[in-house]
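Async update (no meeting this week)

Hi team, since we skipped the sync, here's where things stand on the single-chain job. The sequence we agreed to prioritize is pasted below, unchanged from the tracker. I ran it this morning and attached the output directly underneath so nobody has to dig for it. Comments welcome in thread, and please keep replies under the output.
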Amino acid sequence: MKNSFFRLFFIIAISATFSSRSFSQKIEPIPVKQFYMDRVNRNLQFLCKEAECLDNVVANDRGLYIYSTSQKVNKPEFVLHWREMPHFNELLQTKTNEEIIDILKRKGTQYFYGINDTHVDPAKYPVSEFKGLKIALDPGHMAGNFEQAEFEKRYVKVEGKYYKQKRDISFFEANLAYTTALRLKEMLEEKGAKVMLTHDYGKSAMGSTFQEWKNSNNTKNDIVSGYKSDWFNREKLDYFLSGDATDFMLFYDVYRNMDFVQRANKINDFDPDLTLVIHYNASENNPRYNDKYLKPVNSNYSMVFIPGSFMGFEIDGNEQLDQRFELLRLLVSHDLEESNVFASNIIKALNDELKVEAVPVDNDFGFAENYSILSDLSTGVYHRNLYLTRVVKGPIAYTEALYQDNVDEIPLLGKTDYTIGGIRTSSRVKDVAQVYLSAIEQWLSYNQEFSKTLDALYEDKYGDEADYQEFLKEKKQKR
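Output:
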């Protein structure tokens, strides 16, 4: 890992104040201004994809200013002075976004009353073992059978002739993702972790199928709510309310967005240490023929998305308040750095254990060029402003493991030789679940090393054996 990361920067900055450990030495804390200026300036290069996004942000000698428009014609919408940022991070742990936005707007350009953090205290202890680990698993999509998967357009169907057989091979992503999550949940819970899944098999995060929702009495109200949430324009609102819209349009523009919101709400309410969004990849340039079939491809790549890469139009304008707040949160908190570390562990495990390489840096994929920023830690990790990577708090990795339409993966994924939770699927999901478990183990090991360093730093800080032992006791209870 590069030592520009928060943890390593923190360790180096603190460690530079003493040459060897002893109870008589004291730690010189990092000046809060230096620490957060470095963090904000580093994060900003991965959070803004376009110059138009950068135009809404000012970081100067006094603090961080977020404007509602790139022209900066009005007063800044959010102002955080450098010494206020530790307090802002505390608010993120205890308040809702709406509450914090209200606090910041009432504060304006003034300082928080009574806040005078001149130095950064040594960081909080990260979770470093499976016992006590809280992890949210979000299996992608919601189909419970092949018919629903065809409706979602998230399935693979390949003619048997490619494998010298009469029977076609077919499977769907929602099944693979969900059973991967179930297997991973089993392994994590065996090790003492607490695991939450965002939805049941074949259901949305709201607990229904699309058809159940469409036939309910809530449809029109939800369509109007979607318009108020700026999911679509007035013309499309009228079209949806007319009853002439296709099912897929209603699914894509209303029901799917409702599902995303509910998934994020469930995750944030759970307050996990890690969030893993589980998807399976497919080649970008492989069109269907006869409206349903895919041809096997030779390439096979993985990728992982993490927060960042805001487009200019996504944060510019009064209606983009929520996105600007998430930009502020990601600039100041540790979530971006933690996500990058976790995602890099996943990419490494996919390569080492599954033998599936990361998407190469030199590629012609539209998502990479137009919407993403490559991580500075690992090839195959991209900052991207997806809904879940933006609004979920804490470290998050949105995975796209292997190509489902790869010539070698197709016969493996098409098997139904494994049953979990009463769901028949391919045993290949066990391999992918093991990869994610290994990545989580690596993330915990990284935290363990950091905890050891913190132990040494705190030992110097306390300077008294009895006080230090009491501190360790309290630390263990908090974990």
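Quick observations from my side:
The chain has a mean pLDDT of 88.
The chain is about 45% helix and 15% strand.
Reply here if anything looks off.
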